[in-house]
Structure formats: structure tokens, C-alpha cells
Design goal:
485 residues; alpha+beta; Thrombin, subunit H; Pdz3 Domain; 7-stranded antiparallel sheet; 6-stranded antiparallel β-barrel; 12 helices; 21% helix
Amino acid sequence: MFGRMNKSKFFAILLFSLAACTQPNQGQTRQEPSQLTAPAAQASSISLPDFTTLVQKEGAAVVNISTTQTVHQMEYGPQFNVPENDPFFQFFRRFMPPSNSGPQEYQGHSLGSGFIISDDGYVFTNAHVVNNADDITVKLTDKREFKAKVIGIDRRTDIALLKIDAARLPKVDIGDPSKLKVGEWVAAIGSPFGFENSVTAGIVSAKGRELPDENYVPFIQTDVPINPGNSGGPLFNLQGEVVGINSQIWSRTGGYMGLSFAIPIDVAMEVGKQLREHGKVSRGRLGVSIQPLNAELAQSFGLSSPSGVLISSVEKDSAAGRAGLLPGDVIQKYNGKKLEDPADLSRLVAATQPGTRVQIQVWRKGASKEMSAVIGELPAEAVATHGEEARPNANRLGLVLNNLSSEQKQQLNVDHGLLVEDVAGPAAKAGIQQGDVILAINNNEVNNTAQFKKLLNENGSGKPIALLVKRNDATIYIPIKTKEG
């Protein structure tokens, strides 16, 4: 059709169509030109934030953190990453069995970010950036480098406090995260993938965000691009104040996907204060197992709304047990603060100093009841020695061991031994890993944890210890150097 139509007729039709589209419908008032252009004029008056002043003023207080760590592992010859359900798994297992070549050692390296909070050299970063590091180097924007000392590490909040030997350093200004508003602009400075002092920006997506297995931090969620290497760096508001420490990303690929999480700076400052004064963080403990309320549970307990925290069990010799709390109680308020979900209670109790008496309002059998409890203490995790952390029930080798059940012995094809549930300190440095089975200590077979403890004590401190370790299908002796004293 259009191939045979002359140009003048085509453009006449086109102009008529455009004119018809702009005609007002019957019964409608024709818009004035000023009305038509108002949105465009309004959009032109909106300006994006300028971060140049912030970066110039605060960038010098942001540091690059690099670490080295001696990694020990047992080497069994060629290793093949083939799943057990793969058709070639049995082939590799039969014709290319692992060979015991003993413990191997290599240097691991990692990069992260941090920022200076005092002019005499105290630096914040993430615990996971420096945990178990043998050597930590802090690099400033003026290219100066300093060896850092770990003052303390708190894995529960992912906070580490470092100290470098310097004075009159640039430092950040500390802001108030409670004044942050969702939708507010924020900026991050750090070293993603090692690119030092990179600046990215976005908005606050949410506040008080709870993440799985993270009960002590009400995270600030942002859409600021954060990638590996940004960990430990500061999150700034438009006033140039630090409001958070960039800690985690939510990703299926390991890279940025629009979900970044920062630790509120007020949480970090409280943790840092305790690490500086005591080398560890003291937290309160109530001694209850809790669960959230849903509409059905709330209705069954006679509550008008599903707000509060339901107690499912109470430890007998705990703060809750001594206070008279019972399974089935719904905690509505803690020291006057209303509770909406279990994370609220966990954070409030953890922030309470052990030995403090608190008021607890519970809903029991259709009525509110006021009770008081003296808060206990949660076992501490952190110490100030290069990020090595004390673990409850760990022996002086750094091993947390458990007896093998009959089913485990059958699966592992052993008739004795102890399962390594956690490892740190000398044992970790020697190459022992979680999941290993300890068959013997100094040529003495071990059948239970009490026997292992007895043999360990008989060995004496400062003397090397030989452990016979089974891992997968390989068995090897591993010597462990123990500290004096």
C-alpha cells in the first residue's frame, strides 16, 4: 500500500493522525500549554546529590586492609571435584586413589576495607576480614603502610577493632543511624576487588533488617553497589557521617545484586568500646527458646494481635528459670520496650549487661503479668590474640570433640575415635579440620572425650603431641606444637 502511495499523501495522512491523537475527547476540557509542560518543568528542578565534597573530606580516613594467613591442610595426592552421584566418581576412586603425602602449607591472602575512628590509630573493619590472620597491613590513601594489631574480634556482630602505631591521623565523623530514613541517599568508600578508595552510592532500602543466623545486628539494607573487598568499609550519609559498616551482600553469584547490608555504627561503637576495654564483648542471656507468633497462635492464647515473643522452653538454672518464666508465656515487653518478633528480644537481652535486673511483661492465661529477672551472661567468643577466638568446650589444642555414635562408627568404618566438631588454635594451624576423626593420641587409642582429656593432661604443656587422624579414606599422624604454660 505504502509503496504505491506518493509522499505528499502519506505525510498528509500522518499529520492528520497526529492531530487526531492530540484532540481532547468530548466532554473534557482542553489542557492549557502550561499544564502540559508542568511535569517536565518539575522534573528539571530535581537534582541528584553531589558526593564530591564528602569524598574529599572523608576519603582520607578510609583504609585498605590486606592480610596473610598460613594455611595448613593434609594433602592426599591428586584430588578431583567429582560428586558421588557422578558416573565417573567410582572410576576416579578406584583407579586414582589419594596418596598420603603429609601436611601441606601455603600462604593465603585477602583484601578488605576499614576506616579510622580516632586520630591515634584505632581502626574498624569486619571480623571476617582479619579473623585468623597472621599478618595485617593497613594502607592509607597517602601510601603509608602500617602493621596492625588486633585489639579484639566479635564474630557475633562481625566487628574487629585494630590499632596501628601512628598519630594525628584523619578520622571519620560518627553519625546517628536512628535518624536514617528509608529512601535517603548514602555512599560507600572501600576497595572492591582491590581497587582502593572506590566510591559507590545508592539509597537506604530498609532498616532493622534481620538476616538468617544473625540475631544481634539490626542491619541497614541499601542498594549501594558492594562487592568483595568492600567488607569493613564505611557507609556515609550525605552529611559525611559514618552510619554503618558494610558487611554483607545477598547474592547468588558472589557479586553485587542490589542487596547490601551494613552494621549500624552505634552497634559497632558499643562493641568497639568493650573490645578496647576488655578485649571481648559481654552480652546478657535470658535462657529461653523462643519463636514468633502468627495469627493462629495469637488467637489460641487469647491475644488480639500476633505481637510479642512466644517462649517454647525455659532452661531450669537460668535467668528466666529463676524469674519464674514458663513455656507458653508470651513476652510482650522487655524493660518497657514493646516486642514484635524474636529478633527484638535477642538484641535487647544481648545489649543488657549481665547482672542487670530487668522488668518483663508477659501474657499468661489470658492476662498480662509483670515479672523481673536478673540477666545472666552469654559465653564470650572473642579474645585479642590475632583473631583466634575462645570456643566453649574447646581443649588447649583448640579442638571441640564429640563421641562417635554406633551409626557414625559404622558409616566411617571405624570401631573407635572422636569426631572433630570445631577447631582453632594449634590444632587448626597443624592442619586438622572440622569433620576429621581422631583415632589416637601419642599412639594411645581414644574411645571417648574423657579419655582424650586424661591423655592430653598426662602429656603436659609445651610438649608436642601426635594425633592419628582419619579423613575420608586416608589416615595420617599429625604433630601439634603446644604452647608453654
